[in-house]
Automatic annotation (TrEMBL):
Designated name of the protein: Enoyl-CoA hydratase/isomerase family protein
Pathway annotation: Lipid metabolism; fatty acid beta-oxidation
Keyword Transmembrane appears in the UniProt entry: no
Primary localisation category: other
Keywords assigned by UniProt, alphabetized: Fatty acid metabolism, Isomerase, Lipid degradation, Lipid metabolism, Lyase, Multifunctional enzyme, NAD, Oxidoreductase, Peroxisome
GO biological process annotation, one example: fatty acid beta-oxidation
Top-level taxon: Bacteria
A molecular function (GO) term: NAD+ binding
Length: 653
């Protein structure tokens, strides 16, 4: 039989009586209407006597990437996904899922409804719906626990984490891993013909101890920080062991539909699509990035070591340069230590650690950078130091090598102007710890060549990080907005709010940590040094709050000194009467009569300060789109993702 076409994205071929149904719906085989309709038509064809079994597979890097998120908010067109899933599970003949890529969300639910699941080594499985502010809507919360038990299902569905095919096999989510997926799936299908079929929905949820369920639920909810979806997902999974399948499916579907239309889900969908827009820069259309295989990092202190580990984990060869052999050796040990931590946390295998470290070279001779494709400086954030270094690198590296500065506050244009080839200079503002934080601001300097910018974006994406392109301004996007956020918070403290009132309001709203606690953790001396540098040029008419200066003059630099905005002498964060007295003295000196602030007013003013600074960044062309600003504040400054970011929250999207 030649290939039959069931819809624009679903075809079928019969091989030895087995109908092989193939989905081809790039880029991720999402379950758009024509995929769902095609699957139903394929099952109709499989009812004929010449078909004894069905294998379901897909073309592309994903098996099925889930429901089509772009269809959310539009009227559902039948067949709905639950219709398709019910038809698969109840089909009279064996339906085998041949999973060669990511089976996510509805894709995993389709696999769960099949009577057997064969995967390739590269396949992965997950129900990440909570990351979109929803719960699985096509049986995931009811079928997954029937296969892998309540505790494991709470973990996977409550966190949305994706598992490899190895882990899926261990959990019981799949039946086998095949080196030759097509052959393995065909064999499985043939063996199931005329056999009793294992229908997942008909299974009972394996018994588990209530305490174990509760512990798994507590672990998930402790990390969900007030989000609704994880709590609802956990509730549905736990109910699966007590309710009939039909009732559980009805509860799940109603919950999914309710959450899908929620503000939290809209916010997280905004973030999802924003992350995929961030790398797209109009002027780079058709520009080919330069090849980057070897990376030099000048300065292997805390930041440089983190960048080096990110690059090593991404497969690059890395040369770490320090001023002396001893410093270079210390850098090597720092990098080895970070890799060891990844092994201890299970993020890296011993073998992968050794292989990564074998690609690292520590040196004190900058000449070792002569063949590097990209050199990143992570030295002390001082303009003279960086400018001198780039003058030197200009003479050492190849003419086509890219030079990147990791400055947080300096003007990269001034650094670039010190070199003979400013077009090859770009800014890469990593966030510390650089081997953990996803966000990197890619600074498009005045002279940066398009292919250099494209190379920087591609490099950051290869690190598995989130590149957000910005123009040159003090603090780029994140620190500039953070400065406005901090100023507004200090205005309110000077006007009568207590630091812990501000932090409590922010944490109740969804921030993991309030701004004064964050400042204490980062260290107050950094901002103090910058304020002193700026004092000569500060606008005398602009309101200036001196409280933080007074704290620093008293040696209160934050957690590291045991005292900052708070007192940490017993290890806990506590309000400090000495700080209260200091604040009162500053108010008195300015003749300020303190007033009360409600939590709502505190949050509203801080969110407005961020959004207004974001608007200014857009107007100045520093940020290309409002959603980029949201990504920076979510991924670099703890803005709760389920609130969408300051611009989304302000209604600017
Ligand atoms: N729907 C629509 N578009 C999608 C999509 C989806 N599910 N997934 C990705 N895209 C688009 C994306 O916007 C981008 O578009 C392009 O595909 C490539 O994406 C019923 C209700 C699958 C691991 O949460 O995790 O099923 O920018 O750059 O790096 O219970 O995409 O090119 O125009 O990310 O190779 C659950 C979401 C949905 C998975 C591939 N599924 N997607 O990564 O490509 S809800 C998910 C991903 C659901 C059921 C519920 C990743 C990927 P553009 P990409 P990638």
């Amino acid at each position: 039989m030649n290939t039959a076409r069931f819809s624009e994205s679903v075809t079928g071929t019969i091989v030895d009586g087995v109908l092989i149904v193939t989905i081809e719906n790039p880029p991720v085989s999402a379950l758009s209407f024509h995929v769902r309709a095609g699957l139903m038509a394929a099952l109709g064809r499989a009812a004929s006597d010449e078909v004894s079994a069905v294998v379901l597979t897909a073309i592309g890097r994903t098996f099925i990437g889930g429901a089509d998120i772009k269809e959310f908010g539009k009227p559902a067109i039948e067949p709905t996904l639950p219709d398709v899933i019910k038809a698969i599970e109840s089909f009279a003949k064996p339906v085998v899922a041949a999973v060669g890529g990511a089976a996510l969300g509805g894709g995993c639910e389709i696999a769960l409804a099949c009577h057997c699941r064969i995967a390739s080594k590269a396949a992965s499985f997950g129900l990440p719906e909570v990351k979109l502010g929803i719960v699985p809507g096509a049986g995931g919360t009811q079928r997954l626990p029937r296969l892998i038990g309540t505790v494991a299902a709470i973990d996977l569905i409550g966190t949305g984490r994706v598992v490899t095919s190895d882990e899926a096999l261990t959990l019981g989510l799949i039946d086998a891993i095949a080196d030759d997926l097509a052959e393995g799936a065909l064999d499985a299908a043939r063996h199931l013909v005329d056999q009793p079929l294992r229908r997942t929905g008909a299974l009972s949820v394996p018994h588990s101890q209530a305490e174990a369920d509760a512990a798994a639920a507590k672990k998930v909810l402790s990390r969900s920080r007030g989000q609704i979806a994880p709590a609802e997902a956990v509730r549905l999974v736990r109910a699966a062991s007590m309710a009939r399948l039909e009732d559980g499916l009805a509860d799940e579907r109603a919950t999914f539909l309710r959450l899908r239309d929620s503000h939290e889900a809209a916010a997280l969908r905004h973030v999802f699509f924003a992350e995929r827009q961030a790398s797209k820069v109009d002027r780079l259309e058709g520009v080919t990035p330069r090849k980057v295989e070897s990376v030099g990092i000048v300065g292997t202190g805390l930041m440089g070591a983190g960048i080096a580990v990110s690059a090593l984990n991404a497969g690059y060869r890395v040369i770490g340069i320090e001023q002396t052999d001893e410093a270079a050796a210390r850098g090597h040990d720092r990098i080895a230590g970070l890799l060891d931590k990844s092994v201890q946390s299970g993020r890296l295998t011993d073998h992968a650690r050794s292989e990564a470290l074998s690609r690292f070279e520590a040196a004190s001779d900058a000449g070792r950078l002569a063949q590097a494709d990209l050199v990143i400086e992570a030295v002390f954030d001082d303009l003279t130091v960086k400018t001198e270094l780039f003058r030197k690198l200009d003479r050492v590296v190849r003419p086509d090598a890219i030079l990147a500065t990791n400055t947080s506050y300096l003007n990269p244009n001034e650094i670039a102007s010190a070199t003979a080839r400013p077009e090859r200079i770009v800014g890469l503002h990593f966030f510390s710890p650089a081997n953990i934080m996803r966000l990197t601001e890619v600074v498009d300097c005045a002279a940066t060549a398009p292919d250099v910018l494209a190379s920087a974006i591609a490099f950051v994406r290869k690190l598995g990080k989130l590149p957000v392109v910005c123009g040159v301004t003090e603090g780029f996007i994140g620190n500039r907005i953070y400065s406005a956020y901090r100023r507004e918070a200090e205005f309110m403290v000077e006007d009568g709010a207590a630091p812990d009132e501000v932090d409590a309001a922010l944490e109740a709203w969804g921030f993991p940590m309030g701004i004064f606690a964050v400042n204490d953790m980062a260290g107050l001396e950094i901002a103090w040094a910058r304020r002193k540098r700026q004092s000569a040029t500060r606008d005398p008419e602009a309101r200036y709050v001196e409280i933080a200066d007074r704290l620093c003059e008293a040696g209160r630099f934050g957690r590291k000194t045991g005292r900052g905005w708070y007192d940490y002498s017993d290890g806990e964060r506590r309000s400090d009467p000495q700080v209260t007295a200091l604040i009162e003295a500053v108010r008195a000196a300015k003749g300020i009569v303190p007033r009360r602030f409600s939590a709502d007013e505190i949050v509203a003013r801080l969110l407005a300060a961020m959004a207004n600074e974001g608007k200014a960044l857009l107007a100045e062309g520093i940020a290309a789109r409002a959603s980029d600003i949201d990504l920076v504040m979510i991924n670099g400054y703890g803005f709760p993702a389920h609130k969408g970011g300051p611009m989304f929250h302000a209604g600017d999207i």
